[in-house]
Amino acid sequence: MGSDLHSGHRGRLRQAFLESTRPLCEHELLELLLFCVLPRVNTNELAHLLIRRFGSLAAVLEAPADQIAEVKGISTASAQFLRFFGDMRRDYMESVRGSSDVSGSREIKEWIRGCLEEGTGELCVIVTADSSLRPLSRITFSESRAIGSPEGLRRIAERVFRDGCERIIIGISHTGGQILPEADDFRLAAEVSGALAPMGIRLADCIIFCGETAFSMRETGAFSF
Predict the structure, then answer these.
(1) Angle between helices 150-163 and 183-196 (to 10 degrees)
(2) Is the pLDDT of residue 49 over 90?
(3) Which among 36, 54, 97, 195 counts the fewest CB atoms within 10 Å?
(4) What are the φ and ψ backbone dihedral angles of 203, each rounded to 5 degrees?
């Protein structure tokens, strides 16, 4: 009986996706991915657990495989698959975006805004860029304080060395209607700037997004870069 219920649910979800009968929620999109590696498991519950743990679908796909595997019910192979899909998705999006000339302050704001709009909640992104502020890649975090943690700084350092970048830009979404930087935003900018300095990498800007408005801490002189 349970197997029939799961089969019926999976069939309806696949049909909704293929026929675009309705927009799918983040946990439903994650379920579709889990179908590929967990053929006989209640993936609905697992999808909710993963998003609850990491904060959003984008954050799940950006998380290290070993952390994904810490979620009960997720095998090492399943965690590696999600991480692989996240890397493939990121590389594809960067390839598409890289086909246009994205550089400079205004363009980088719009590029980061697009990254933040892919998720929900107060997401944060770290963008690696070259000397012309052309984006190379990004790392998504479910909350700003995760960036300044030892694990967050380790992920940034690994990406910096992988990309061979010269600049880093921080993008933070504020969902409470406050566009001005808060104390945590200044603290984060200082932590990231201090961590990158020994590697010869400059923090180029920290940009706050709230609705359609963007606040550049560099352009306004709110932070010394």
Answers:
(1) 50
(2) yes
(3) 36
(4) -80, 110
CATH second-level architecture of 102-216?
3-Layer(aba) Sandwich (3.40)
pLDDT exceeds 80 at position 145: no
- Nearest by Cα to 24 from 33, 12, 16: 16
Determine the angle formed by the axes of helices 76-98 and 26-35, rounding to 10 degrees.
120
What does the pLDDT look like over 26-41, one tens digit per residue?
A: 888 888 888 888 877 7
Mean pLDDT for the chain overall: 79
Check if the beta carbon of residue 116 is closer than 8 Å to that of residue 173. Answer: yes
Given a contact cutoff of 8 angstroms between Cβ atoms, the answer to whether 31 and 52 are in contact is no
Strand partners, 210: 213
Tens digit of pLDDT for each residue in 97-143? 454 444 456 777 887 888 777 655 557 888 888 877 778 888 888 77
